[in-house]
Design a protein that fits this description.
Rossmann fold; Jelly Rolls; ten-stranded mixed sheet; seven-stranded antiparallel sheet; 13 helices; 23 strands; globular
């Protein structure tokens, strides 16, 4: 990597302290009087140390179950919320590790509100409590991935004086677009999974406070009549037994972007975050975390760095993600201990370029040297830089929502000729197309894939869009990065042609000589076809999808080409 410091790992804090025993269930009083509880592990030595706070609803107790250093864990054993970081890595290197339960979780009082304002304030209050303890030198950071990471940005926007830096490891920034609704399509699989991780029995749907009793009942009745919801007994049951998953019911009752999501998203408050931020994600985190790192780097004005790496599978890092602890340590050695280790002297962006599998430093994102090239969807499944001619025939597929287990979804594919040379695409991607559907709504699922000479295909990136959510926010959209309002449902008349634009997640990928680029378009996903947690509520009507690709409807994939150096 150009401009990197090769020996920076030699400058890291060394493991020189014994770990003291965990001090468990220490009470911390929030500003409104709510009693919260934390666990503390610190070096077994006199003196004051910087501290790292880990805060999530997964339960402080399970954070002590992490596997030994250097050992990964499979999905069922490793991702039950064990994402706070390895205590036996940080504490011997001179940091106090604090695990906290927010309100409504475990023994902490109050009601859990999933990233709500009170929970954000709790995080700030715990930061200040930590700074006041005799074992803390007044320098506090935060640690942890996913929920823990998302919380860091929200707490930072509260501006607690002693929070000096954060390390956002796989954290989304827009709850509606990145997490709850992908292109307006409800992310059912994840919210069915995640609620099982929350040790709370007191939570009620937030919608009971957000709507009047009459409006709440009317919205429940509307859900019960929804033809899509009626094909999912688990979701329908929530309208009768909300306690089964009150968070998921709240999201179903809020199908459009709005205050519920704005309060729990960090992007509206980027201007309030003044402390240094490290953003880390991976290219295969299409569904949730990758766009958070991209949006954070673009929107934050505080000192920031971004690293985008990759993992062998879509589920991400082996918990508790020991692979990246050295990056965290370097960041906090600099900002909390004042060690001159060169972390801010390197380029602000570091990306792992897939295909050639090489690291590279960059000065900005997206790259100014990218040249956006249109790859047109052509007749007979071709993907070409040559525009279509008049009267090219459209392509069609019919999507059956009652997909048998193990069955592959019907789809269309558009494929380039073999690459004549190694070809890099790095940056955001926009898919622009004209289409008609035979129903009053439908879902579009797209993938960009790399097809090797032997025919094997790997996913490069993904995108999604519900037909009725096609309305763009023209003030925020660019051709390479469409931005949808998600504020209302547009009428979609069967068999009428509409223009669509899909925000396909950013990537950095080299298609090697002889490989082909392929665009796959389908109408649904499923647990056995896609990663088992990121699947969505499908439309319940068998629907014919027609994509036009003639001279009057030049459907195309807009790709960020990087010229060979």
């Amino acid at each position: 990597m150009s401009g990197s410091i090769d020996n920076w790992r030699e400058m890291l804090s060394k493991p020189q302290y014994e770990m003291a025993d965990w001090e468990k269930e220490i009470p911390v009083r929030a500003r409104d009087g709510t009693q919260l509880y934390v666990d503390v592990c610190r070096p077994k030595a006199p003196g004051k140390f910087p501290a790292l706070l880990a805060l999530s609803p997964y339960g402080r107790e399970i954070q002590h179950l992490a596997p030994p250093p250097g050992r990964s864990s499979d999905y069922t054993r490793g991702t039950g919320g064990i994402e706070s970081g390895m205590t036996n890595y940080f504490v011997p290197r001179g940091y106090v590790h604090v695990h906290a339960d927010p309100r409504g979780i475990g023994r902490s009082g109050g009601e859990y509100t999933h990233f709500g304002e009170a929970e954000q304030q709790d995080g700030a209050d715990i930061v200040e409590w930590i700074a006041s303890q005799p074992w803390c030198d007044g320098n506090v950071g935060m640690v942890g991935m996913s929920y823990f990471a998302k919380h860091q940005l929200l707490v930072a926007s509260q501006q607690p004086p002693h929070l000096k830096a954060i390390f956002v490891h796989d954290g989304y920034t827009d709850m509606y677009r990145h997490m709850a609704y992908h292109g307006g399509i409800f992310n059912f699989g994840f919210y069915q999974h995640i609620w099982r991780l929350f040790p709370t029995s007191t939570t009620q749907p937030m919608s009971k406070q957000l709507f009047s009793p009459q409006e709440y009942q009317e919205k429940l009745e509307a859900l019960r009549r929804d033809k899509d919801i009626r094909t999912y007994p688990y979701l329908y049951k929530l309208t009768i037994n909300a306690e089964n998953n009150p968070l998921m019911l709240d999201l179903l009752l809020h199908p459009f972007d709005g205050p519920l999501y704005w309060e729990r998203s960090s992007y509206p408050d980027f201007d309030k975050i003044k402390i240094p931020v490290f953003l880390l994600s991976r290219w295969s985190a299409w569904a949730i975390h990758l766009p958070g790192a991209i949006q954070g780097f673009d929107g934050l004005k505080a000192p920031r760095k971004m690293v985008i790496t990759e993992t062998p599978w879509e589920g991400g890092f082996g918990r508790p993600w020991h692979e990246n602890h050295d990056l965290v340590l370097r960041w906090y050695d600099h900002w909390l201990k004042g060690i001159a280790n060169g972390v801010m002297d390197e380029p602000p962006v570091k990306i792992f370029v897939k295909g050639i599998n090489q690291w590279r430093g960059e000065q900005e994102w997206p790259l100014r040297r990218a040249r956006y090239v249109k790859y047109f969807l052509r007749e007979d499944g071709k993907l070409s830089t040559q525009p279509p001619i008049p009267h090219e025939r459209p392509a069609r597929f019919s999507n059956d929502p009652w997909q048998a287990p193990g069955q592959t979804s019907p789809c269309l594919t558009y494929t380039t000729a073999p690459m004549e040379q190694d070809t890099e695409f790095t940056g955001p991607i926009g898919l622009h197309f004209w289409a008609a559907i035979s129903a009053d709504d439908a879902n579009w699922f797209v993938q960009v894939r790399d097809v090797a000479p032997d025919g094997t295909a790997s996913i490069v990136t993904k995108g999604w869009l519900k037909a009725s959510h096609r309305e763009l926010d023209e003030t925020k959209s660019t051709p390479e990065r469409p931005y949808h309002r998600h504020a209302r449902r547009l009428e979609t008349k069967p068999h009428e042609v509409y223009a669509y634009a899909i925000d396909v997640r950013d990537t950095s990928h080299v298609f090697m000589r002889g490989h082909r680029m392929q665009l796959l378009v389908k109408g649904q996903d499923s647990p056995w076809e896609d990663f088992a947690i990121w699947y969505h509520v499908n439309n319940a009507t068998e629907t014919e999808h027609t994509i036009l690709n003639d001279a009057d409807h030049p459907s195309h994939l807009l790709m960020p080409l990087i010229a060979a150096s």
